[in-house]
Amino acid sequence: MxxxxxxPCYNEAKNLPLLLERCAGLTRQRPDVEVILVDNGSTxxxxxxxTELLPRYPGCxxxxxxxxxxxxxxxxxxxxxxxxxxxxxTHADMQTDPQDALKGLDLFTGASGKLFVKGRRYGRPxxxxxxxxxxxxxxxxxxxxxxxxxxxxxxxFPRTFFETWGDEAPHDFSLDLYAYYQARRQGLGVxxxxxxxxxxxxxxxxxxxxxxxxRKFIRRTVDFSLQLRKxxxx
Length: 234
Hints:
Elements: E1 3-9, H1 16-29, E2 33-40, H2 46-53, E3 60-65, H3 71-81, E4 86-89, H4 100-106, E5 115-122, H5 126-143, E6 155-158, H6 159-162, H7 175-185, E7 189-196, H8 211-231
Parallel strand pairs: 1-2, 1-4, 2-3, 5-7
Antiparallel strand pairs: 4-6, 5-6
């Protein structure tokens, strides 16, 4: 298996039919790609939808998390079950297309094993861009590593890189920062490629709802960043 793409799904029942169609397009083009949809402790009809639809989509399977323990926990659960040489994750909300992972996979062709690939978002509201720029400058200054558009997807890397993480990876949205920082710290080459960032088809973001939610996100991220700098000094 060349690539395992992990997609954490928390209460995404309405998005799952469209998501699976896009994932099927990915696996049809590349039979050496698998998609792991993590039912991340959903309380809606996600489990029933996956049970009904997954048999129609070869190359797609699911991992069940009984109780939601965070965005990062869901991703880590999928990564531990993955079979691919290259591991990746993206979001279930369809704001970025799962098939973007094929563009990222192309960047690994002919590259050494020490490569970390992320999307670079475009098409976002100016307020969100300003928020991203501010957080990028803050994290770059605090951690002394160039870190830009940290939460962009997909995120892609070799299995050998994941195996260095141990049990210290965070279980919340800080996982994006953790992976990116570790890649910089371990000297992986970082490649970015443009991905269109659109509107959610169904539902709402679990954190990017308003500025109050963003303040909570910033506070959690800053706390984690300070701990990261303290614990992971070279």
